[in-house]
Amino acid sequence: MPGRVSVVGFDNIFAADLISPALTTVAAPLATLGETAVRYVLALASGNATARRRPTVLPVELVVRESTGPRGGRSRR
């Protein structure tokens, strides 16, 4: 089944490219994620009930390595 299964991780940890096959990951801005979460908690703690209603979208990056196969690789029997 190798070549028919893709594996993707999250956080782009430093060891992702050290293993074999190298792990494809989603790299998220963890510092910005933490700062945003703290801002929301502080806003809610200070009585700002509308803080919960504002969604925040943070940028992410797909770091493609060896653990994913080619796009559209469904096998046909």
TrEMBL record:
<keyword id="KW-0805">Transcription regulation</keyword>
<dbReference type="Pfam" id="PF13377">
    <property type="entry name" value="Peripla_BP_3"/>
</dbReference>
<keyword id="KW-0804">Transcription</keyword>
<dbReference type="InterPro" id="IPR046335">
    <property type="entry name" value="LacI/GalR-like_sensor"/>
</dbReference>
<feature type="domain" description="Transcriptional regulator LacI/GalR-like sensor">
    <location>
        <begin position="2"/>
        <end position="68"/>
    </location>
</feature>
<keyword id="KW-0238">DNA-binding</keyword>
<protein>
    <recommendedName>
        <fullName>Transcriptional regulator LacI/GalR-like sensor domain-containing protein</fullName>
    </recommendedName>
</protein>
<dbReference type="InterPro" id="IPR028082">
    <property type="entry name" value="Peripla_BP_I"/>
</dbReference>
